[in-house]
Amino acid sequence: MSQAKNVKLKIKRQESAEGPARYDHFEVQWLPQMNVISALMEVRKNPVTSDTKEKVAPVNWESNCLEEVCGACTMLINGRVRQACTALIDQVAPGGEEITLEPMSKFPLVRDLVVDRSRMFNDLKTVKAWVQLDGTHELGAGPRQSPENQEEAYPLARCMTCGSCLEACPQVNDSSNFIGPSAISQVRLFNLHPSGKMHAKERLEAIMGEDGVAGCGKAQNCVEVCPKDIPLVDSITQVSRQATKHMLFGWLFS
Amino acid sequence: MAAKTAIRSESGKVRRVIVVGGGLGGLMTAIKLCEAGVPVDLFSLVPVKRSHSVCAQGGINASVNTKGEGDSPRIHLEETAYGGDFLANQPPIKGMTDAAPGIVYMLDRMGVPFNRTPEGLLDFRRFGGTLFHRTAFAGATTGQQLLYALDEQVRRYETVEVEDENGMAIPGEKMVRKFEFWDMLSLVQDGQGVCRGIVAQDLKSMQIEAFPGDAVCLATGGPGIIFGKSTNSVINTGTAASAAYQQGACYANGEFIQVHPTAIPAADKLRLISESARGEGGRVWVPKNPKESRRGREVPESERDYFLERRYPGYGNLVPRDIASRELFVTCFHEGRGVYNTRTAKNESEVYLDLTHIPKPTLKRKLAGILEIYEKFVGEDPYDNPMRVFPAVHYSMGGLWVDFERSADGGLVHGSPRNQATNIPGLYAAGEVEYQYHGANRLGANSLLSCIWGGMAAGPAIASYRNNMGSSAYDAGSNLFDGAKKREQAKYEAILKMDGPENPFQLHAELGQMMLIDVTIERHNDRLDQVLAKIEEIDARSRKVSVLDTSSRMNQSAQFVRHLQNMIVLARVIAQGARNRDESRGAHFKPAFKERDDANWQRSTLAMHREGTNGHGQVNYVRELAYNLNGTQVNVSDAVDVGLVKPRPRKYETAGAASATAADDKAKASPSTTSV
Ligand SMILES: Cc1cc2nc3c(=O)[nH]c(=O)nc-3n(C[C@H](O)[C@H](O)[C@H](O)COP(=O)(O)OP(=O)(O)OC[C@H]3O[C@@H](n4cnc5c(N)ncnc54)[C@H](O)[C@@H]3O)c2cc1C
Ligand code: SF4
Ligand code: FES
Predict the structure, then answer these.
(1) In Å, how far from its chain's centre is CA A10?
(2) What is the CATH number that goes with domain A118-253?
């Protein structure tokens, strides 16, 4: 048996965006298969700092599925944006190093590690990320689709609105309204679907211009950080091509 | 004041219905309400798109019969009733299985990227409790894809304007308003006990507000977190169901908790490896030699015990979950034959789940999502060496009691306001939070179906209730809502002042550990008596916790204290129900009462809350219920409606035993047809 080891955490604490920030240090006992969320769960069972031995409020963070499918637990771990639930302690800190946790910086802070990502859900409205259905009543089978089509769509459909790609994108900042990679990739997804296609034009119009596809600076950080390996650069290129085509020839068909 | 219309109250307010929960059940309810022209306020603890339904991996059942096997909704009904050990009312199951093919087609039209056959049709795979290929799937993240599809449709309704009686858009009013990061605290009930809205708390600002609603539908999911660690998401505390129960809603069949046979143990969560792994050919085994020291892949075929295939030649690795979990438990605990760990020199509580005989490209195409989970969390390659798994708490068959209206031929009256209605007038429920479809054991891939179908039934039922209701909740007077809000504010203030010696998170871990050990796979009355005593102790200690955090902004500790209190209430319902039921049926297994006892227990457990003298809850079990539906008294009993499929003993040893119709079809077919 390996002897008891400890997990060391350094966590950025902030009551609100306006309030002062500080870092608290905690130590909890290492457990097999532990990840950053389970370490945080241990902290709140005894929220006392390891250096000053001060009793503090338990850390607030967001999580839900704990298997990297809901996107909730995204944060900066040692400065890198990722999901805390798949951040295994043994991989992040193999030698028992201190692990730094901070909230994402591109979204308004709520408290501690929690930020407000509602803009991403609003962006999905902007790009009309849905198939326009006549209704949910029975209308028989859907359109046939080739396995290839499914294999192109499925990876795009796994976007969990986690925000990692926005956090990593240099074009997403205080002085820009760039919609970011994930919403653009959703345009590609819905423009691919046999009936979604019918409204491709509206989606393309929504993302033309500086706040849309043209805002991409081609830094390609997004693909690096996307936990679902979504081909975001591909998506941006494709949608950008669709948009250009629509701009040049769209009037022919309207 | 104008007269009330279909859209506006007398006071001129837009008459909305409240849906609490944005998983599959809640979203489908909201869509059906919108299609019926009813505006919706949708509440959720988390952004809707992050609801627990995203976790579902394997698929959704529908007898579309594209593989030429002769599958049909009738067979699906029979296998669901049989799989549930005849504890579920059959008319609602029939409604669901009849609707299933249409539901999968609808999801396909919404854009769910279901896996396809070479001809471009939907592909289907096998799941437990059936011999048919009946499960549609989108890789191994089907729940996520289904949730996203419904979420997208609801998002569209967030942009659609409410129209008045003359078809004119009402400025500023959208068909759906979302309240995400809100926690429902309680129902607002008028003097007659009719549900008139809810009180909820904004989890960012911690503000408490009361909201009127002409009806309320709870679609708040299951209570798995009562068991500490499970396959469930962390928000699945059952808090809303518990609150409704404490306000008079009946909770049914609470003791029926599904334990899934194959999950990966860890410190924070027991991550599921979906049944689809076995549906695609995965095999469960342990080495014949209990001290086997070679790696799984190095153990030769002849030295492996495929114990499920051996004991259940008919259904093999795809026996229903209650049976598979019990067999794993027996193999590891009673026989001590779990996989041997050379480092600890112990037989661990683990068996092999083996996919290594299946070509890697096939696995990638059909199961990548779950194999990724195994790789990410265990750090081993499941394509190369068999996975190591153990059972985990997974699903609650029990939940809020809901009604249905039976048609003359034993089916369901579609659109009846009784469907999905709880015994609190104006309160409906859909999804895992209610008890209707799965009896004593749920078949895999039937839950996504029952959640969506529940929403499809609840929407029209609520619209009908709302059309025929007397005064609107929006005319109920502000006193009612102010009073309800003040009560909740006072309760919350009291929580913020709690400064005792106990840590709420620690106390929860204790509760969970106990429930997990004694109220899951095997249940013994003496142990259950101890559990019940311990629940009283934990209840008492929960009143002496420290809130840990007094902040007036996002305060997760204070919120958790409330959830903990509500979990304790439901834990008692679950444990007491298990203690009472002296028989074995589906997921409820008592070694001292091994047989199913239809004479005494072919009935639903109906639990009603009672406040005890010490302030602790007490469970009052009833045999009959009565409630008032827009002026008509409805009386129901705990008898199970088994009019469509006659109860008989469950025997998964024999192929095809789960459906008489399928067996008949097979007998009628030419003698050369040997299997479906
Ligand atoms: C790992 C896993 C895999 C599964 N795989 C399958 C599968 O392959 N096939 C299958 O059929 N089933 C599967 N299931 C079961 C299925 O996923 C669930 O039963 C189903 O998704 C439940 O959906 P729901 O709509 O009832 O609730 P949920 O999806 O749990 O949603 C509940 C909603 O209620 C909200 N809520 C809860 N409490 C409150 C409150 N107090 N105030 C406000 N909002 C609240 C939540 O925020 C959430 O939006 C699986 C389950 C698990 C755990
Ligand atoms: S595209 Fe990837 S990184 Fe961006 S939000 Fe979606 S899942 Fe996250
Ligand atoms: S908790 Fe869902 S992605 Fe981590």
Answers:
(1) 22
(2) 1.10.1060.10
Pick the CATH number of A6-115 from 3.30.1490.20, 3.10.20.30, 3.40.630.10, 2.60.40.290: 3.10.20.30
* CB B239 near ligand 1, within 6 Å: yes
What span, in angstroms and rounded, lies between the C-alpha atoms of B342 and B293?
A: 6
Residues 6+ apart with CB under 8 A from B302: none
Buried b vs exposed e over B109-133: b needs ≥16 C-beta within 10 Å? bbbbbbbbeeeebbbbbbbbbbbbb
The 10s digit of each residue's pLDDT in B403-440 is 999 999 888 999 999 999 999 999 999 999 999 999 99
Tell me the count of A-B CB pairs closer than 8 A: 200
Tell me whether residues B265 and A33 touch, CB distance under 8 A. Answer: yes
pTM here?
A: 0.97
How far, in Å, from the CA of A55 to the mean position of ligand 2? 36
Check residue B140 and report its DSSP letter. T
ipTM entry:
0.97
Tens-place pLDDT, residues B167-209: 999 999 999 999 999 999 999 999 999 999 999 999 999 999 9
Cβ B440 vs Cβ B586: under 8 Å: yes
Residues 67-96 of chain A with CB under 8 A from chain B are 67-72, 85-86, 88, 90-91
Catalytic one of B16, B271, B321, B581: B321
* Ordered domains of chain B (ranges, CATH): 17-53+140-256+394-484+631-637 (3.50.50.60), 262-392 (3.90.700.10), 487-626 (1.20.58.100)
Q: Which residues of B touch A154 (CB under 8 A)?
A: 113, 138-139, 145
